[in-house]
Amino acid sequence: MAATKIGLVMGSNSDWDIMQSAAEQLEQFGVEFESRVVSAHRTPDLLFDYASTARERGLACIIAGAGGAAHLPGMLAAKTTLPVLGVPVPSRHLKGMDSLLSIVQMPKGVPVATFAIGEAGAANAALYAISLLALNDAALAAKLDDFRAAQTEMALNMTLPPEL
Ligand code: RP5
Predict the structure, then answer these.
(1) Alpha helix (H) ranges present in 5-106?
(2) What are the extents of the domains in the chain?
(3) CA distance 127 to 124
(4) Using a 6 Å CB cutoff, which residues line ligand 1?
(5) 5-156 maps to which CATH number?
(6) Whole-prediction pTM value?
(7) Ligand 1 centre and the CA of 103: distance in Å?
(8) 36 is in an annotated binding site
C-alpha cells in the first residue's frame, strides 16, 4: 500500500513560525503528518535514525526546513531515497539567502527539491507533498483541483482602487 504520511522536520523550534505554514496546509487537506525538531549539527544521530527509518515507518516524503548553513535537507537526503523537500528558513543576517543556497546547491546524485525562502516555500512544499500523495489518491487529487479553482476564483474577483 502506498505511504500516506508526511514527515515535517526543522532544525530548531525557532523555525516553527515559518514551518507552521506547511503544517497548516497539510491540516487543511486532512493529510497525516508528524512534526519534530531534527537538527543536522545538534542531533546528528537522531537525524541519521530519522532518515534511515523513514520509509519503513511509512513516510511518503520529508519536508525539511532549516536556516543558515542549512544542511538538514541534504543530510536527510543522504540517508533516505524518499523525496526530500527543502524549505529555506529566513536567517537573521542574510535573510535566508544562505539557507537557500545551502539547500539548493546539492551535488549531482543526491537530490533535494528546493522551495522558496519563507512561508510561501513552506506552504508550497506541503502542496507539493500533497501532489505526490495525490498520484495514488483520486480524492486528494480532486481536493487539489478544488484548491486551485478557489484560487482562480479569488484572483478573478480581485478589485483595485479606482483610477485617479
Ligand atoms: C538552524 O539554525 C535552524 O534550522 C535554525 O533556522 C537556525 C537557528 O537555530 P536557533 O539558534 O534559533 O535554534 O539549525
Answers:
(1) 16-28, 44-53, 72-79, 97-104
(2) 5-156
(3) 5
(4) 10-12, 14-15, 39, 66-68, 89
(5) 3.40.50.1970
(6) 0.97
(7) 14
(8) no
